[in-house]
Amino acid sequence: MTTDGEIIHFDNVGLRYGTDREVLSDLSFTLFPGRFYFLTGASGAGKTSLLRLLYLAQRPSRGAIRMFGTDAITVPRSRLPQLRRRIGVVFQDFRLIPHLSAFDNVALPLRVGGHREEDLTGPVRDILDWVGLSDRIDARPPTLSGGEQQRVAIARAVIARPAMLVADEPTGNVDPDMAFKLIRLFEMLNRQGTTVVVATHDLDLLRKVPDSLIMRLDRGRLSDPTGALRYPPRKTL
Amino acid sequence: MVRRLFNARGAELIPQARMSGPMPWVIAIMVAMTVIALAAGLALGNAVSSAKAEIEGGVTIQILEPRADMRAEQARRAVDSIKMLPGISGFRLVPQAELDALIEPWLGTGIGTATGSAIPVPALIDVRLKGPATPKALSTIETALKPIAPSARVDAQSNWLKPVFDAMVSLQLLAIALVALLALALTAAVLLAARTALGANRDTIEIVHLLGGTDTQVARVFQRSIGYDAAGGGTVGLALALVVILSLGRRFAGLGAGLVDNGALNWSDWLLLAVVPVLATLLAMITARLTVLHALRKML
């Protein structure tokens, strides 16, 4: 059951692909609005699988998930787009649409959300300027470097001001300066009320956001080193 | 809202082939064949109805008396009797000169002089009824003629051409069946194309879904893409078909045969042919939409 103020609630969630063993087991936690969460764990611990559940790319094999007050397991397909529009996602492999320009990739969430063309040009240019790609607006992803593609992916994830931002290794392909800048952007969004969940194994990154809470995955099970999963959360690093 | 998945700068969610892929040309061939089959069906229909209307009320009376004087007398009496019958709109005793002209291609001229005796060609009376030449109408004429012209034989003109009409109607049904089959083939081709396009763009579709795109938005993208292909292909197909129909029309017109001339297409037929690419485009778009929606339902 969720209570007021919770945006995500996992209750005894498990996930397996096919008939293999569970990649996620017995996950029970709650995410609260306006918090900054880091999800850490070794490679293969299940970070990406957990994020896929968070951004509704996957249904769990068992357990219950409530998102924004809605049962995400039984919600009809027709209502999934409304839920997804409240979530911004930075994919580990960027997943930009290769034949669209940087501008059109970033504008896509706004177009999908029904924004008028004249209303989206300014915000898209602003966000591309902010991530340092104002001179690459018309470039297509295959002509961009890995770091540039990652910045386009981040710009696309945040352009619609989502209630929750989910990022899978968002600073993996950028230099330290840009990584710091992107984390500042996430913090800025977080201060404006966006819940941020960043999966990373970069411990330096954790230290850059002192108010963050850490969820640690170990072989598909969650541990709670900073009390992120308790309420009220303990704020220590 | 959906239209904005395409922007003012021409970027489209699904890459557009625009007449460079096979789909528009498949549609062009389908539409061309459909238009030709439909034109054939319509022309046959016109020929049948026009010929039927012409001879529907036509009755031929043959006086088969071998002796010329008696034949002439029976023919005269028959004409007098027909005048009195109800339901007759006109009649004509075919003049001897016309009868001679009818057999001239086979027997030549001056046969009577050459053989010493004239060939007993039946006297013919061409009768037009106000209504169709039903068995009842024929029976009334036969009854009236029996006492005065016992050798008279009464035939509905439509009976002579019945096998021809039947064959033409069969051809017309064949044309209709061809049109239906081609529509089915077009649907199948679009279904395959939509599934292939779905497979090729699966990653893009998943991203759009994860960004909050709806099934309807994605389906409209495909529907629009196939719509462009179908409209382009349909126009090319119609143009090809018109060239074929017009050149065939000119060849048939050169035959100068009445039945063929009656098969000319009228303006409503041309309009119907022009509608074929529009219908093909609509069919393709609906098929694409339903196919994509059905496939998307299997995705989360």
From TrEMBL, chain A:
A biological process from GO: cell division
UniProt xrefs under Gene3D superfamilies: P-loop containing nucleotide triphosphate hydrolases
Residue ranges of domain ABC transporter in the record: 8-237
One Pfam short name: ABC_tran
Matching PROSITE patterns: ABC_TRANSPORTER_1, ABC_TRANSPORTER_2
Topology in membrane: Peripheral membrane protein
InterPro entries: AAA+_ATPase, ABC_transporter-like_ATP-bd, ABC_transporter-like_CS, ABC_transpr_LolD-like, Cell_div_FtsE, P-loop_NTPase
Subcellular location: Cell inner membrane; Cell membrane
Gene Ontology molecular function: ATP binding
Keywords: ATP-binding, Cell cycle, Cell division, Cell membrane, Membrane, Nucleotide-binding
Superkingdom classification of source: Bacteria
Main subcellular location of this protein, as a coarse class: membrane
Described purpose of this protein according to its UniProt entry: Part of the ABC transporter FtsEX involved in cellular division. Important for assembly or stability of the septal ring.
Family classification: Belongs to the ABC transporter superfamily.
Subunit relationships: Homodimer. Forms a membrane-associated complex with FtsX.
Protein name: Cell division ATP-binding protein FtsE
Species of provenance: Novosphingobium album (ex Hu et al. 2023)
UniProtKB/TrEMBL annotation, chain B:
GO biological process: cell division
InterPro entries: FtsX
Lineage top rank: taxon: Bacteria
Transmembrane segments: 25-44, 169-194, 230-250, 270-292
Full protein name: Cell division protein
Species assigned in the record: Novosphingobium album (ex Hu et al. 2023)
Keyword set, alphabetical order: Cell cycle, Cell division, Membrane, Transmembrane, Transmembrane helix
